[in-house]
Design a protein that fits this description.
365 residues; alpha/beta; single chain
Length: 365
């Protein structure tokens, strides 16, 4: 691969670091091996944990036999649990797919650390916008990147009432959670958060990813937000909150699994612009039914392959996806092993998707 070395000076904390930038003529991106370490630091926050508390107790993913419910089921009104469960199709997410209220209840408000009062104000502001169809205040406060002139379809009275009922449930059960559940949960999470931080303290994982992918990580650090309920009940445990924050369920019986997942998601964050390009490629979208989500499978499999190259640990994903499709990790992993050196990451993933399509078509003819 043809490359050009550019030397530049990066000033940081009054120290001068000399770095070499490799300019890739084919992908037109800069990759700069660094002489300073980007941090990976865990945080333990009450509101993401509280929402997972409600989600798990209400069995939004319809898994049944909840271990978390056995631990804390008495801390939420049963009628509220039933209501959320009956409306689970509006909230539950997984394998790259989201529902109508997923973003509003969880992902958008937790882009930054937020207090309970701030979260409740946020929900009230959204409810007010729903009712009067005036979105300027909500966009200004909570979605500055949104098109301020964007028209949001008017919701029916029934839809508005449903959302208000969910807000009432969230507010009604919070004080009991804070009093009876949070002291135990926060103590466990802080304990394991220290172990995770200690693991990453002496390992420059972000730099290893950058060197392996020849793509820079655009932020100064990566910040796992730790929660408990989703790990106990094996619910979605790597949830992208912002460009540098990701929510992880902490498996207290297998902390190495959580660490592996954090390493995996750092790779996802670095490669996300490539995923975005591929997801918006109409040619690739037409190759598959949406429920099969082969683009997601190909992308996640590539991350796992590169993670193995970095850490020497291999985890083969098996079984059903959240939406019922089968995750075909072995096909993609073998394809990447054979073709990894021939193409840049985006082209390699595109080729893998097309190769899978050919294999799939041949198998069904």
């Amino acid at each position: 691969m043809i490359s050009k070395i550019i030397r530049f000076i990066l000033e940081n904390d009054e120290k001068v670091y000399y770095t070499f930038c490799y300019y890739n003529y084919f992908s037109f991106t800069f990759f700069c091996p660094r002489k300073y370490k980007k941090s990976i630091e865990c945080s333990v926050e009450i509101m993401p944990n509280y929402m997972w508390h409600l989600f798990a107790l209400s069995d939004l993913w319809n898994n049944g036999n909840s271990q978390y419910y056995k631990m804390f089921g008495s801390t939420v009104y049963q009628a509220d649990i039933n209501y959320l469960h009956n409306n689970r199709s509006l909230i539950a997410w997984g394998n790259g797919s989201t529902a109508a209220l997923t973003e509003i209840l969880f992902f958008r408000p937790f882009k930054n650390k937020i207090s309970s009062s701030e979260y409740f104000d946020y929900l009230d502001c959204f409810s007010k916008a729903l009712k009067n169809s005036q979105w300027k205040d909500f966009f200004t406060r909570y979605c500055p990147e949104c098109n301020q002139q964007m028209t949001v379809p008017k919701k029916s009275d029934e839809e508005i009432k449903l959302f208000d009922n969910i807000i009432d449930i969230i507010k009604r059960n919070y004080s009991q959670y804070k009093k009876e559940v949070w002291p135990e949960v926060s103590q466990k999470l802080n304990q394991y958060g220290e172990k995770i931080d200690s693991y990453f303290k002496n390992k420059d994982i972000i730099n290893l990813w950058e060197k392996e992918l020849k793509i820079p990580y655009s932020r100064e650090g990566f910040y796992p937000v730790l929660t408990l309920a989703n790990a106990i009940d094996h619910l979605p445990s790597a949830n992208n909150l912002s460009v540098s924050r990701n929510n992880f369920g902490v498996d207290i019986e297998n902390i190495d699994w959580t660490i592996d997942l954090i390493v995996h998601e750092i790779g996802v964050f670095i490669l996300f612009p490539i995923l975005d390009n591929i997801q918006h490629d109409t040619e690739l979208k037409t190759l598959f039914n949406n429920e099969n989500n082969v683009i997601y499978q190909a992308f996640e499999s590539y991350i796992e392959k590169k993670k193995e190259d970095i850490t020497g640990k291999k985890v083969v994903w098996k079984g059903k996806m959240h939406n019922g499709a089968t995750f075909n990790f072995p096909f993609f992993f073998e394809y990447y092993k054979k073709n990894d050196k021939l193409f840049d990451p985006e082209q390699l993933i595109r080729n893998a998707i097309k190769a899978y399509n050919e294999e799939y078509n041949n198998a069904t003819k």
